[in-house]
Amino acid sequence: GMCFIRSSRPNVPVIYSGDEVFKVGQAKVVRKSEVDQVTVIGACVTLVEAMKAADELAKTGINIRIIDPFTIKPIDAKTIIANAKATGGKIITVEDHYVEGGIGEAVSSAVSEERGITVKKLAVPEGPRS
Fold first, then answer.
1. What is the spatial order of strands in the sheet that 28-31 belongs to?
2. What is the pLDDT of residues 24-79, one digit of tens each?
3. How far apart are CA 35 and CA 40, in angstroms?
4. Helix and strand tally (H, E) in the chain?
5. pTM of the prediction?
6. Phi and psi for 25 in degrees, rounded to 5?
7. pLDDT tens digits for 7-21?
8. Residue 57, class by beta-carbon neighbours within 10 Å (0-12 exposed, 13-18 middle, 19+ buried)?
9. 128 DSSP 8-state letter
10. What H or E segment, with its residue span, contains residue 57?
11. What is the average pLDDT value for the chain, to the nearest integer?
12. In DSSP terms, which residues pair with 105 in a beta bridge?
């Protein structure tokens, strides 16, 4: 089947330790509080940017939950749905490439049969550069 391999990317901070265990189909909640207002899902560069945004938003009293999906297929629908429900049914996906075939579409598909969950997709409208 189809797969995606990133052959280049900008320098980004390492957020996981060298002994972090990753499992195919298992997302990681990388930031969480009991008062999160939205779930933000991103990967690599956009995950790091989401974490920076969370720091800035927290200064104004807005808390966001952040998920690293790790894999898109299979996607961890259970984790995504549970966290979306915990944040009022609001999800924002953030990706540094086209919306077609990306995280936003995978997340939208994963939650499509759930009531009360809305997905807003932030993606590159033309010519991604990373």
1. 28-31, 64-68, 38-42, 90-94, 118-122
2. 999 999 999 999 999 999 998 899 999 999 999 999 999 999 999 998 889 999 99
3. 14
4. 3, 5
5. 0.88
6. 85, 10
7. 556 677 888 888 999
8. middle
9. -
10. helix 45-59
11. 90
12. none
- DSSP string for residues in 112-124: TTSTT-EEEEE--
Structure tokens at 102: 């990306």
Q: What does the DSSP assignment read for 19-39?
A: T----TT--EEEE--TT--EE
List, in order, residues 6 or more apart from 77 with CB less than 8 Å away.
110, 111
Adjacent-strand bridge partners of 65: 39
Cα–Cα distance for residue pair 2/99, rounded to 1 Å: 17
Question: Residue 111 has which token pair?
Answer: 């939650």
